[in-house]
Amino acid sequence: MNNEIEIPNSIMDNLMSKNNEKRNLAGKNIEDLIRQILEKQNPQDSQVYKMIQYFTKNLGSTNINDKRGSIKAITSIGIALKEHEKYARQYVKMLTRPLIDQMQDNDSKIRFACLEGLYHITFALQDIILLNFKDIFETLVTKVTDMDNSVRSAATTLDNQLKTIVQAADFQKGDLKIEELMELINKKIVAQNPTIKSMLLSWIKTLDSIPGVNMLRYLPKFLEQLFLNMSDSNREIRQSAELCLRGFLEEIMQRSNTMDSQNNLSFANEDDEIGRETHEQIINVLIEIIRTPNPGEKTKYNNISQMNCVWWIHEYLQMLEQHSQYIVEEEEHKCERQNPAIQALLNKIPVIIQQTLYLLSNEQEEIRRSADKINQLMLRILEKLKDKSGKFSEAMPMLQQMLDEKRESTAQSALVWMRQLIKYYNKNKSAQINQVLSQLIAKLYDSDSMVENVMEVLGNILKDKENFDLVIGQILKACFQNQKILNKSDIIIKQLCNILNPELVFKTMASELRKYDDINFVSPFVRSLDLILLTDSDLKELRNFLKNLQFQKNLVPEKIQLFVDIFKTWSYNPVSAITLCFLTQAYELAYNIIMSFCEIELNKSNLTQICELIYLLEKPIFVYLRLQLLEHEKYPYLLKSLHGLMMLLPQGETYNLLASRIKLVGQGSTDQQTMVSQPWDKLIENKIDTSKMVEIYLKVQIDARIYKENIENLNKLKKQ
């Protein structure tokens, strides 16, 4: 027998022999020897300890046969211990560590023998081996990529055996904690080697298949890598990652959609619940992957990863939409939200909106289309939830920043969101609306489509009566200060009339314009308003009201005042004032304004506008006026007004056009008695006070002339 351990020399000789059969026989002998020691009435397990210690030490020999013999001996001891759980648990680490250490040997035969030995010990001890799972697993991760085929094959075989054991393990015993195993996987999953990736993905699928193991709790730690693996060059890895992701997403949706008939949203099994924090971590990973990098920043996520991530977000949002009714009920009854997935998603909605809008400007069409689906889905959810939780409105500051985005798709979509969110803003958020207002108005110089979207947002702000005068005033101020915005004034006004009550828009515009002294600003602006009033389809109702103003019975003073308010402002532009008079059939007033050109300057601008008016009179809008010329005795001031305009014009094309129209009427002069006695004049005498309107007009013109003279004098002084 050996002096250090009680093993017969014949067994030791066979154990250290070159002959494989002799070694195997010696291994069987050692198994029997261990069983005999442990089956005694008073087993001396110290002998087992000494044997393990001896053969571990012997592994340091430079003789390959001694090493192989020691590996065989350690393996045999491990196999023999399977019938003695107490000692197996006591010595499992002592048995496996030396074999693990020897896997660094340069000789592939030694590495293979160690893996083979570990496999046999693992197979024999089953779940007891889990006590040293960490060391074995970390070694396997390196050995599956070994240069030697036989070593790689042995590592794969051991890996499969470990999976089988883990699948059947009782985790309540604590030999292996899922948390520790997931730590190992998370640590290694960032590896670039395809074999290691494949191995770890296989472990994730294995663990997810075990009943009672809730892998969703650990998903945030490795979810990013799953998405990255979706774009791996290795097809097998891509497929494995896709299967994992699909399985986890289905599980998330299934758990989150489990409904309890008593409590609107709850989990059937609370032990399986994953909390709000876990869902938020998952959503954070998704947001990071779809995040548009800053200029100059590189991203590790390609289109495939982002597309799959967008799909996950879409599924989360669909779940939110499906439960919108319950969410509204919870908000109305001030109930605590029971579904952690929904709670987490609502908390992250502002950031999801932000990143989705950036994706709308992505270079890849497929990503843009997918992002648009998400965007439309979120807008539908907003409509259903009415933002009672206020979570959607938290996106407003980010949306404001996006207005300055150079990528128009993103900026335009930000405006759409602002328009929708403002619908649900309550009174205490009026300060925030004021902050938004100046930024919105500053965008009015942008493209026509951008202006239209800005006006949609402003339209929603304007629906609150408290904001109406303020917003109109701010728009006019912007037009006054910025020529680019002034150039867009036609689009701005038309959009306002399309969104809001045109009557209120014109009344307020007229009122706000009178606050400006600068005739060079007000007069052209009035001309724009006048042309819109005459031609825009959205103003048909207002046009008809003004046209028939003279004939309406029991007209309330407010309606008369509408004309007065508009006329006061139109007086800044003589031709627009005349046009308004023609529209309202206030021909005597029109005649008086025309005659006032004796006292005011008839400049080139006025002549141009008179020419435009003559052409306008030929349009369908003034067909009634042309027909009234057939009854010029009834409408004497109409004919006199047209004669007056003709006298103002130099002879030319426009002059000839008007002259030919008047010529068709024939001589239309009548005496004063005829003018006074006509029924039409009696009908209108209480509607429009012509003399008062003339006074208003002349005062405006005098003030405008004084303003121009003051400006001219000031400019002269500056030049001196």
Automatic annotation (TrEMBL):
Family of the protein in this entry: Belongs to the VAC14 family.
Organism of derivation: Tetrahymena thermophila (strain SB210)
Transmembrane segment boundaries: none
SUPFAM superfamilies hit by this protein: ARM repeat (SSF48371)
UniProt-annotated location(s): Endomembrane system
InterPro entries documented for this protein: ARM-like, ARM-type_fold, Vac14, VAC14_Fig4p-bd
One GO cellular component term noted in the UniProt record for this chain: PAS complex
Presence of the UniProt keyword Transferase in the record: yes
Gene Ontology molecular function, alphabetical: kinase activity
Residues in Vacuolar protein 14 C-terminal Fig4-binding domain copies: 485-665
UniProt-listed PANTHER family: PROTEIN VAC14 HOMOLOG, TAX1 BINDING PROTEIN-RELATED
GO biological processes: phosphatidylinositol biosynthetic process
Entry keywords, A to Z: Kinase, Membrane, Repeat, Transferase
UniProt protein name: MHCK/EF2 kinase domain protein
